[in-house]
Amino acid sequence: MIHKLFTWPLDTVRFVGEKVKEEVDKELYDVDHIQQKLVHLEMMFEMDEISEEAYENQYDELMVRYRTAKEIEQEQLRQSLEDER
User: Fold this and answer.
1) Is residue 34 a contact partner of residue 26, using CB atoms and an 8 Å limit?
2) What is the pLDDT along the chain (85 residues), one digit of tens a residue?
3) How many angstroms separate the Cα of 58 from the Cα of each of 52, 65, 71?
4) What dihedral angle (degrees, nearest 10) is formed by the CA atoms of 80, 82, 84, 85?
5) Distance from C-alpha of 42 to C-alpha of 45, rounded to nearest angstrom
6) 61 with 28: CB under 8 angstroms?
7) Distance from CA of residue 56 to its chain's centroid?
8) Rg of the chain (C-alpha set)
């Protein structure tokens, strides 16, 4: 009981840290989220809300994230297939 009393603050910090990491990973490497951002970016460009230079910079950044997300997704699929064997 005393052990839990002293480790509770650390467990809470770790839990919150894990949740923050999950959200950051989702923001950065979730394929669906990136695709939505690409569509939104395209719409902003077509409606002249951003310059061509800003569009190209953001597009390049999103495509790098998209490629990384797809690699992560493929690695996770590969890993799950290996785990099933």
Assistant:
1) no
2) 666 666 777 778 788 888 888 888 777 789 999 999 999 999 999 999 999 999 999 999 999 999 999 999 999 889 988 888 7
3) 10, 11, 20
4) 180
5) 5
6) no
7) 21
8) 19
Query: How is residue 48 annotated by DSSP?
Result: T
**How far apart (Å, rounded) are the C-alpha atoms in residues 39 and 45?**
10
Amino acid in the structure at residue 45? F
Asked if 69 and 30 count as a contact pair (C-beta separation under 8 A), the reply is yes
**Interior angle at CA 73, CA 70 and CA 79, nearest 5:** 140
Contacts by 62-66 with C-beta closer than 8 Å and gap 24+? 62/34, 62/37, 62/38, 65/28, 65/29, 65/34, 66/31, 66/34, 66/35, 66/38
For the entire predicted model, the pTM comes to 0.69
Who contacts 52 (Cβ-Cβ below 8 Å, separation ≥6)? 45
